[in-house]
Design a protein that fits this description.
Blueprint: E1 3-6, H1 8-16, E2 22-28, H2 34-45, E3 49-53, H3 55-62, E4 70-74, H4 82-92, E5 97-102, H5 107-119, E6 124-128, H6 137-143, E7 152-155, H7 158-167, E8 171-175, E9 182-183, E10 193-198, H8 206-210, E11 214-217, H9 229-244
Parallel strand pairs: 2-3, 5-6, 5-10, 6-7, 8-10, 8-11, 9-11
Antiparallel strand pairs: 1-4, 2-4
Helix pairs in contact: 1-2, 5-6, 5-9
Length: 246
């Protein structure tokens, strides 16, 4: 089964990424602009099939009118196998940097997290098969093309996956809000590590917390003592980047 991707930036990344195979570019008829012409040139260089449609037909195919005048037909999304992911990391001899998501169900949060993870240089994002948002057109649009470059792995048992990562020498930190959790900014986050982020409302499940090596908290100085999941994840990801860039 094939999927439609919409939006100029996500399609641009999909055409130059190593993710799903592009099958056809669908462009609005009679509404030329420089950004669309750029995508058309990309598609022509790849000898990709290009077809022109009335805007109403693109609205119908996308299910909305926010497609920016272009759709890309892709092969269906394929999750990366976890065992393959571990083998590739070991063979690379590079420092591990993984992100695990426990119960992120909002597509906008999920897409924003994927975008931050790719920009921060994560090796992969790992999600549980249950209680997780699937990859949808909204996720891909919000991710702004991140999935064209970032492996996404789906596992049946997240706690077992944490144990496998720890056995492989990866230190696993859970993001939490408890007072007894370690301060994110005063914790050594260099070396092989994985960040674990919980759901938008309840955070990490108790079983997942128990499988983390340590819990981290973001210090908050205002009256509101919580952050949106994607914002909190971005802060934690780039604290890892900061420490490993020194």
């Amino acid at each position: 089964m094939a999927d439609y991707l919409y939006g100029i930036n996500p399609i641009h990344e999909a055409l130059q990424g190593r993710g799903r195979k592009p099958l056809e570019l669908l462009v609005v008829n009679g509404e030329p602009n420089d950004r669309l012409e750029g995508l058309i040139s990309q598609a022509e260089q790849q000898r990709l099939k290009i077809n022109y449609f009335a805007r109403q037909e693109l609205d119908r195919l996308a299910g909305h009118s926010h497609h920016q005048g272009v759709l890309l037909l892709l092969t269906s999304f394929r999750y990366t196998d976890f065992a393959e992911l571990l083998r590739d990391w070991r063979a690379s001899q590079q420092v591990a940097f993984f992100l695990l998501l426990d119960g992120i169900t909002d597509p906008h949060n999920f897409g924003a997290i994927l975008r931050s993870a790719e920009v921060a240089g994560c090796r992969a994002v790992i999600v549980a098969k249950d209680r997780s948002c699937p990859v949808t057109s909204v996720v891909e649009k919000t991710a702004a093309g991140a999935l064209a470059h970032l492996p996404l792995c789906q596992v049946t048992n997240l706690s077992r996956t944490l144990d496998e990562l720890k056995s492989a020498g990866v230190w696993c930190y859970g993001l939490a809000g408890e007072a007894e959790a370690q301060n994110l900014f005063s914790t050594d986050l260099q070396g092989n590590l994985a960040l674990v982020v919980g759901s938008e409302g309840k955070g990490l499940r108790p079983n997942i917390r128990n499988h983390c090596d340590a819990l981290l908290t973001i210090p908050m100085l205002g009256k509101i003592n919580s952050l949106n999941a994607s914002v909190a994840t971005g802060i934690a990801l780039f604290e890892v980047v900061r420490q490993n860039s020194q």
